[in-house]
Amino acid sequence: MCCNKKCWLIVGSVVGGLLIILGGVLFPAGDLIIGNTIDKEAVIEEGTIAYDNWIVPGSPVYRCFWIFHVTNPDEILKGGKPHLEQKGPYSYLVRHVKKSNVTQNNNDTVSFYQPNEAIFQRHLSIGPEEDTYTVLNLAVAAAPDMFPSVLGVINAAIKSSNSSLFQLRSVKELLWGYRDPFLEKIPNFLLPDKNTGVFYPYNGTMDGPYTVYNGRNDISRVAIITKYKGESTLSNWNDNYCDMINGTDAASFPPFVDKKKALYFFSSEICRSIYGLFETEYMQKGIKLYRFVVPSAALASPVTNPDNQCFCTDEVLSRNCTGAGVLDLRACQGGKPIFLSLPHFLYGSDFLLEQVSGLNPSKEEHETFVDVEPITGFTMHFAKRLQVNVMFQPTSQIDVLANLQSEFVFPVLWLNETALIGDESANTFKSSVTVPMKVLDVIRIVLICLGGVIFLSCSIALCVRSSKKK
């Protein structure tokens, strides 16, 4: 009887030890299983989780606009300081259709076009898109910069069309385009298209083609852009560094995101690559996310960040390249004096805010961020916030510009393009990724704890029995 009891205690110790070993083995083995599963499901090929979320956004993407209404247009023309009032939001559904012309190449890349379409969302807006405001006349403000050699013709066209530097326009017209009476007076050989608008043309157009790595041969490069419009670099900045195309389109990133490294992404709208730095870790709908935020250094002056020297294209406007917070897009906007910034000139130089009144930059409301699930690299929440500005200055040959107080980087509107993973998508992700990982963690811990209890109990019992026998 005693012998049988001793045997059972020995067997219990062995079993406990084996359970501890099995639990320990499951840590590297489980990580290997998870890694292999992620490597398989993160590839951009039909049948994978990554492909299903890549071909069409798993959550609807909205673009919300705030229009800068000009309250004192007559005073500005006489040299007064502009006062602006923010009006919005006006919301549009912009990403809800599949990528077009998707082609899996013979190597490890996939090419596609991104369709552009904006559908007005009245229930998410403060009013109909027919709401009208006093806004900057885009055509008049841009004309002197685009046609500097024919300012007399421009001035005559402005007067004959009864145009001015400011006009009353609907939200729909300002955003998506309208036929401008001033442009109707410009000779066709100078300007054949008489339409203008901040995003004209947009609906029905395509962005691309993009060529990205599909991750088939190297999952660490999945979704990273290798070519845009057939080129591996841009040609906007005349500099090898600034013309680089880095990172993804921010819809997803390679798996196993490292919070110590910057996340790079490319945006055709800003004609450059930019990056985010890790800020915080938090839970969203039961999913752990890393938040990466575009830092002030990304739009800092070359004095503060020498890497930005090649983005300084106008020394006069940027105060001899000491100004911060705006990006000159003339080279990639057909010569139009479009300058991009964060909303309300967040992180911009003081002189930008001093030119106008009515702006109140806020990090919480106006920063750009990307929230990434670190294991898969999938973007679960993001907010791309940008402000569109037009540059113009006093010009004696143009009557409506002759008495301005100074040059302006004039805010027209700002936008927030945003998406948040929906409840259904979040539950699907958790059931296919998060839950299995948690179950594996629980099994590993239970095996080690149970094995430890059994091993210690049996071992102690053996020691006690042995001491009593002696």
Could you characterize what this model shows?
This protein is 29% helix and 27% strand. It folds into two domains: 2-37 and 430-469; 59-96 and 119-201 and 233-421, no CATH class. The chain contains ten helices and 19 strands. It is of the alpha+beta class and 470 residues long. Strands 1, 2, 5, 12, 13, 14, 15, 16, 17, 18 and 19 form an eleven-stranded antiparallel β-sheet that branches. It has helices spanning 2-41, 49-55, 73-77, 138-146, 151-160, 171-176, 181-184, 350-354, 363-366, 423-469; strands spanning 61-70, 84-95, 100-104, 109-115, 119-121, 132-136, 166-170, 178-179, 195-196, 206-213, 225-228, 263-267, 272-284, 287-293, 326-328, 338-341, 369-372, 379-392, 408-420. It is elongated, with a radius of gyration of 30 Å. α1 (2-41) runs antiparallel to α10.
State the main characteristics.
single chain; 470 residues; alpha+beta; 2 domains; eleven-stranded antiparallel beta sheet; four-stranded antiparallel beta sheet; 19 strands; 29% helix; elongated
Q: What is the element layout, followed by pairings?
A:
Elements: H1 2-41, H2 49-55, E1 61-70, H3 73-77, E2 84-95, E3 100-104, E4 109-115, E5 119-121, E6 132-136, H4 138-146, H5 151-160, E7 166-170, H6 171-176, E8 178-179, H7 181-184, E9 195-196, E10 206-213, E11 225-228, E12 263-267, E13 272-284, E14 287-293, E15 326-328, E16 338-341, H8 350-354, H9 363-366, E17 369-372, E18 379-392, E19 408-420, H10 423-469
Helix pairs in contact: 1-10
